[in-house]
Specification:
The complex is a heterodimer. Chain A contains 11 helices and 14 strands. Chain A is of the alpha/beta class. In chain A, a hairpin with a 2-residue loop joins strand 9 and strand 10. Chain B folds into 3 domains: 256 residues, no CATH class; 25 residues, no CATH class; 253 residues, no CATH class. Chain B is built from 27 helices and no strands. Chain B is globular, with a radius of gyration of 24 Å. The chains are: A alpha/beta, B mainly alpha.
Chain lengths: 298, 552
């Protein structure tokens, strides 16, 4: 089966400004892919390019095996989209809005729409212009999910949602993936991506700087390690180990940041001391993310 | 903060008055250049009533004729319209954009904000008047046209006060309601009614004094170009301005600010009433969103209803009986009217009912009305969805960009046809009521050509909208081009060597065949249709090529 999203050397310039540079990315069917980056990194530009809202300066992209420009209309039969900074028609009710879009797709299963509305606690009878931004966002989410698309592309979809609705939304994304369909989730909300995504891509200044499985990112992550020995320790022993930094010694106790395989650290210290206790704090994506960004600026 | 709000408003708004006034200045140049070459002897025979209406003194010269025709009508309407646009959005615009809350979260009162907006409105209107004054002095000097005895300063001062009056009327309505569209629409309606009432009522015996009820009377009723400043009239306008500022202040301070809410329309009320719910729900809900063009058409329904109603009632039905009431003496002199002046209003021989309707309705007002809707829709159709940030969502559906453009053009055609039909029905009914015996077929032909003309310029607006994604660019470019073509079409025929070039103006294909008397000219109809179709096609091509804009 074709990759739900495939880009090769996708590049977009606005005048002299390179918003997207040589982006090569393959998203697999049935996965939730988190697309991470700070504001202005190029996430939205990438999404708008593959949706044919804007045209690449060079490079190509395909969705479900179809060229994003040549076959854009056919592609859109198979996708659901939640734009960042969602705006809708203020003078239409939620249900009118969904009907409007459903009419462009030869109808929709209203039972499913109602089910989605109940799950997200959305009021479809009120005018979109009278809704709070979170409630408006719910209408946008239903709009994207209601056609059971093969690929969901969502740009910062949980903005404005309260924690309970966010949780339900995450469940909905997992269901889509479990169904063999695909979710492309652009976000700077790391905790959300960490909870739902199988893989993440990290983008910075328009360049994709890493694509990793969430699990393997974690294993590589810098973690804080606390070691307790039966005798006072010396900092130099630890600083000699590759991947160790920020060593602080408090008599028998050592605290350090470590980025590497635990085995090498243990092997290095075993020659000098007898280990009494060890405690590691698992890093979360937040730290990984910040690390990538710190490294990127070096 | 006062200075900040003021300077920001000035910075946001200065282009309108500058472009508007400079354009009118150019028309003055063009008008004076043309009038200079015409035999002026005919003006000495002008009927007094007509001279009074158009501000032409008994010893009319090139200068007074040009000032009268261009400044007193076009110039005054333009300056007042600019003031209305600024006034209507002063407060209501900030509410629509959702910025009023942010603005008022600063330690300043609503009164301060309104006073800043007031100052900006006065300064920007003054800027426009100043440019008009400069052009009014430079143009005759450059063309060596005699302007002795003409008090351009007095005319401009009256024009300035007049524009302020309408600007502050719009500001007051906007301050009370928070609805910019309503404020500008209602004020524009008052202005148009007042413009015609002040011009036409003095022509009808026994109604001369009724004109005093209309504010436009206090602008040109005293003929300031000839008689200088009329302190009485000027103080009426300025007292009105002060009163309106006060009313605006009271209104703004006492009401709840609007969020970016959608507001409640009559249809919404009917929709929530159990009696009417079913029918209205279908109309306002499922039918409305069944097609892109139907939704687009429903989005601007207020504009359509008002425009069609004005054309039907005021420019159609009312004018029929009025013609039979008008002073015979005026009609008797119709042969002597200067063609160059009449040409600006579309020409027309006032001694016949057809000529009357051509001069009053079809010459100028009808093309304006149909363009208000076709250009309005054309400009907003694509660029409006982009600035509203809904285009991305719309195009996430399996529809091509071409289809979006085509659907939007259906809405434009629908609007043009409705206004065309309203005009036809109004004029036909007016003719019937006034016993004028005009041919319904010819009225229909003229209305059809008028609709096609509107669609041509609507197509242009759609094309600019498709190419740029900017509503304002589309409106300004189209209106500028339309006015230029109209002026060319009106003046070129007076110069034998240039007369052939009128065929390059779309307006030529509208009235040059005199359809009110001669019926449909299918060749001209085809030219206008092809123009509209070609421009819509250009819009399709241009829209398909470019990157969508992300924000307004």
């Amino acid at each position: 089966m074709q990759n739900p999203i495939h880009t090769s050397d996708l590049t977009k310039h606005y005048g002299d400004f390179a918003a997207l540079v040589d982006l090569n990315l393959d998203i697999n069917a049935g996965e939730i892919f988190g697309f991470l980056g700070p504001n202005g990194a190029g996430k939205t530009t990438m999404i708008r390019t593959i949706l044919d809202e804007i045209r690449p300066t060079s490079g190509r992209a395909s969705i479900l095996g179809m060229d994003t420009h040549e076959q854009s209309v056919e592609i859109r039969r198979h996708i659901g989209y939640v734009p960042g900074d969602l705006a809708m028609y203020p003078n239409l009710t939620g249900r009118d809005t969904l009907t409007y879009f459903a009419n462009m797709r030869d109808g929709v299963e209203w039972g499913f729409v109602d089910e989605l509305a109940t799950r997200l606690d959305a009021d479809l009878s009120r005018k979109v212009g009278d809704l709070s931004s979170g409630n408006r966002q719910k209408v946008g989410l239903i709009q994207a999910f209601m056609n059971r698309p093969d690929l969901l592309i969502m740009d910062e979809p949980s903005s404005g949602l309260d924690p309970l609705v966010q949780r339900e939304f995450q469940t909905m994304m997992r269901e889509v993936a479990a169904d063999g369909r695909t979710v492309f989730l652009s976000s700077h909300t790391l905790s959300e991506v960490q909870r739902v995504a199988d893989r993440v891509g990290i983008i910075r200044h328009g360049r994709l700087i890493a694509v990793e499985a969430v699990a393997s990112l974690r294993s590589k992550a810098i973690r804080t390690v606390e070691l307790m020995f039966d005798s006072p320790a010396e900092a130099s022993v630890f600083e000699a180990v590759a991947g160790v930094r920020d060593v602080t010694i408090d008599d028998h106790q050592v605290r350090l940041s470590f980025d590497g395989h635990m085995e090498s650290l243990l092997a290095a210290v075993a020659d000098h001391y007898t280990l009494v206790d060890i405690n590691t704090e698992e890093a979360d994506l937040e730290e990984i993310f910040l690390t990538y960004y710190r490294d990127g600026t070096d | 903060m006062l200075a900040t709000v003021l300077t920001k408003t000035l910075r946001d708004r200065w282009k309108g008055p500058v472009i508007g006034a400079a354009t009118i200045g150019l028309f003055l140049l063009f008008g004076m250049a043309v009038y200079r070459d015409i035999d002026l002897a005919i003006y000495t025979d002008l009927p007094e009533a007509f001279r009074a209406l158009t501000n032409i003194p008994a010893d009319a010269g090139v200068g007074s004729l040009a000032y009268g025709a261009i400044y007193s009508s076009y110039g005054a309407l333009t300056l007042a319209s600019l003031a209305i646009a600024m006034g209507a959005t002063s407060i209501a615009g900030e509410e629509r954009d959702g910025t009023i809350g942010l603005l008022l979260s600063n330690p300043r009162s609503r009164t301060y904000v309104l006073v800043s907006k007031t100052a900006a409105l006065v300064l920007l209107t003054a800027l426009g008047a100043l440019i008009l004054w400069g052009a009014g002095r430079i143009v005759p000097a450059a063309l060596d046209v005699e302007t002795t005895g003409m008090q351009v300063e007095a005319l401009l001062l009256h024009m300035f006060a007049n524009a302020l009056f309408y600007g502050f009327l719009a500001l007051a309505i906007g301050a009370w309601t928070g609805r910019g569209g309503f404020a500008s629409g209602a004020t524009a309606a008052v202005m148009v009614v007042s413009f015609f009432a002040a011009g036409l009522l003095p022509l009808i015996e026994g109604f001369e004094n009724v004109a005093r009820l209309f504010p436009w009377h206090y602008f040109e009723g005293s003929q300031p170009l000839v008689n200088g400043i009329d302190r009485g009239h000027l103080s009426v306008l300025l007292a009105g301005v002060v009163a309106l500022v006060g009313i605006g202040l009271v209104g703004l301070n006492r009401r709840d600010l609007r969020g970016q809410n959608a507001g409640v329309t009559l249809l919404d009320r009917l929709r929530s009433n159990p009696m009417t719910e079913k029918v209205v729900d279908r109309l306002a809900g499922s039918t409305r969103v069944s097609r892109i063009w139907i939704k687009t058409a429903s989005d601007h329904q207020g504009l359509l209803v008002v425009t069609a109603a004005v054309m039907f009632l005021m420019m159609g039905v009312l004018l029929g009986p009025m013609y039979s009431l008008i002073d015979e003496s005026l009609i008797g002199f119709a042969d002597d009217l200067p063609e160059a002046l009449l040409a600006l209003f579309g020409g027309g021989d006032m001694s016949t009912a057809e000529g009357w309707y051509q001069l009053e309705t079809f010459g100028l007002m009808a093309p304006i009305a149909v363009m208000v809707v076709t250009v309005g829709i054309g400009a907003r159709a694509l660029a409006g969805e982009e600035s509203g940030r809904t285009m991305g969502l719309l195009l996430a559906n399996p529809i091509s960009r071409s289809r979006v453009v085509i659907e939007k053009s259906y809405a434009m055609v629908f609007y043009g046809v409705v206004v065309g039909f309203a005009t036809f029905a109004g004029v036909a009914l007016g003719s019937l009521l006034g016993g004028l015996g005009m041919s319904a077929g010819n009225i229909a032909a003229t209305s059809l050509l008028m609709t096609l003309l509107g669609l041509g310029f609507g197509g242009l607006a759609l094309a600019v909208s498709a190419a740029t994604g900017r509503v304002k660019a589309a409106i300004f470019a189209t209106v500028g081009i339309a006015v230029a073509f109209h002026i060319l079409n009106a003046f070129l025929p007076f110069n034998d060597s240039l007369a052939g070039y009128t065929k390059w103006s779309p307006f030529y294909y509208y009235l040059s065949s005199d359809p009110l008397n001669n019926g449909m000219n299918w060749g001209h109809g085809v030219v206008l249709s092809l123009l509209a179709i070609a421009l819509i096609w250009v819009a399709v091509v241009l829209f398909d090529r470019r990157d969508l804009r992300q924000t307004g």
